[in-house]
Write a structure and sequence with these properties.
The chain is α/β, with parallel strands linked by helices and 471 residues long. The chain folds into three domains: 178 residues, FAD/NAD(P)-binding domain; 161 residues, Polyamine Oxidase, Chain A, domain 2, CATH 3.90.660; 103 residues, no CATH class. The chain contains 14 helices and 22 strands. Strands 7, 8, 16, 17, 18, 19, 20 and 21 form an eight-stranded mixed β-sheet that branches. β7 and β8 form a beta hairpin. α4 runs antiparallel to α5. The longest helix has 27 residues. The protein starts with a strand and ends with a helix.
């Protein structure tokens, strides 16, 4: 059985959904191929039963937010965020560091360091900011590694006492083994220093504004609104987007794996599924890992290459008591603790009056951890951090591990990734790479905007090529 489309999109995460919907809305015929039974990827939700009650958990902390681009918001956000969604002008997120819960800001409070280290760190931070005004600022790619970058921005003292132990906790590497910018994935781009009053003055300086954060999430508030379902998980949004894809006649191939890709003179002509179906196309958009595509096109590419990955898992719990904080989520930066980010759904959905209380704890680790050991350790940490009382009963209802984790931001991985992209670009004329890994993006709105804009350009280019052929 053969089918033919203008575009084939591989990968049913938000990047693939956004690209397919954009193309279909502009009149292109589109097929979307996804290996999982449902679309959404990590923007989906899981259901677990506790007794007879169905409980919904997400694959981490995922809130919708306006992009500020009316075209994109009107296509992907506004039609869905109706009365079934909570709205947030302020996101209540905090962190745990040096044995203290910062429940007023997402940024690490450097004041929690011992007085000598803090004083020296502040001197270096302000000195480096003054130097930055005298010399041409470096681009991120001009730094040799993450340590050099952080030391030039924040100073050696803050790096040694704040950043280095945290990088070691989650990545198992020191900053000199990691690429510049690796810290930003962990929410370490800004620090809290000084007092709230002095910070307001300091942030009037553009350089310091890019390095220090307000002491409260009530300050520096964006006009953009965030959203989360009132009675469901973020998977509700991707289910609604899936319905919209069907409305726009996108052909969905879910639970479908790719067996082969037919090419001729560096042009991809068709994708062959494992059930034997051949899907022909004029252009292929690949939104999942580039290595999965190379594995099909050139398995020899992997000879002699070693890829370093983090273990990433999600642990879902219920509690018989409401949390002692009104935070929506927080990050645990304590080096001796296991947790990364904890999402408190009941606070997000304003449902602390109803039991059970749901929460998800993300764990990022350089090496895999036994789930039972992790569950017990996390339960203790939720009490040690002051999120729950000592009397709270925290019960595990399930866990999920990302099959392949995620690539460590090391120099060797970055080199392999660059080689993969260069190989694919040089061997496939009608291939476009999208998504987090292919476009070096991390945040939802970045992926959404990039996928929409790229798909729109492809649509315009496709129309021009078609008109030329017609003439």
């Amino acid at each position: 059985m053969n089918s033919q489309f203008d575009f084939i999109v591989v990968g049913g995460g938000i990047s693939g959904i956004a690209a397919a919907l954009t193309l279909a809305k502009n009149g292109c015929s589109v097929a979307l191929i996804e290996a999982a039974p449902k679309l959404g990827g990590l923007l989906g939700s899981q259901s677990f039963f506790h007794g007879n009650e169905e409980l919904v958990f997400d694959y981490g902390t995922h809130l919708l937010r306006d992009t500020g681009n009316k075209v994109i918001d009107d296509l992907f956000i506004k039609p869905f965020v109706n009365k079934n969604y909570e709205r947030y002008q302020i996101l209540k997120n905090g962190n745990f560091f040096k044995g203290k819960l910062n429940a007023s800001s997402p940024f690490i409070n450097a004041n929690f360091l011992n007085p000598n280290d803090y004083t020296q760190g502040e001197i270096e931070l302000f000195h480096n900011a003054s130097l930055s005004k005298l010399i041409e600022p470096k681009a991120l790619s001009e730094y040799d590694n993450c340590e050099e970058h952080l030391c030039e921005i924040f100073g050696k003292t803050f790096y040694e006492n704040i950043h280095r132990p945290i990088l070691k906790k989650f990545y198992g590497r020191n900053g000199n083994d990691l690429i510049p910018g690796a810290h930003s994935l962990l929410g370490l781009s800004l620090l809290m220093v000084s007092t709230p009053e002095k910070t307001r003055e300091l942030k009037k300086d553009p350089i310091l504004n890019s390095r220090i954060g307000f002491h409260s999430f009530h300050e520096g508030i964006s006009d953009l609104v965030s959203y989360y379902p009132t009675n469901n998980g973020i998977g509700l949004w991707t289910e609604e987007l899936t319905a919209k894809l069907k409305d726009w006649k996108v052909k969905l191939y879910t639970a479908s794996e790719i067996e082969n890709i037919n090419s001729n003179q560096n042009r991809i002509e068709a994708v062959v599924l494992k059930n034997g179906e051949e899907i022909q196309c004029q252009h292929l958009l690949w939104t999942v890992s580039p290595f999965s595509l190379i594995k099909i096109l050139n398995p020899n590419f992997f000879q002699g290459r070693q890829f370093e990955k983090c273990s990433t898992s999600l642990y879902h719990f219920i509690s018989n008591e409401a949390p002692l904080t009104d935070l929506y989520y927080f990050i645990n930066y304590e080096p001796d603790m296991l947790s990364f980010r904890t999402t408190l759904y009941s606070n997000l959905q304003n449902k602390n009056a109803h039991h059970p209380i749901r929460l998800t704890v993300e764990v990022i680790s350089p090496t895999p951890i036994d789930p039972k050991v992790a569950e017990e350790k996390i339960q203790k940490e939720l009490i040690q951090t002051g999120i729950f009382s000592k009397e709270a009963i925290l019960t595990s209802v399930g866990h999920f591990s990302l099959p392949n984790g995620f690539p460590l931001p090391t120099h060797s991985n970055a080199m392999h990734h660059a080689d993969a992209l260069n190989y694919l670009k040089s061997h496939s004329q009608n291939l476009t790479l999208l998504g987090k890994e292919n476009a070096n993006l991390f945040f939802l709105n970045q992926v959404l905007t990039h996928s929409h804009d790229t798909a729109l350009k492809l649509h315009h280019s496709f129309n021009q090529d078609f008109r030329q052929i017609s003439l």
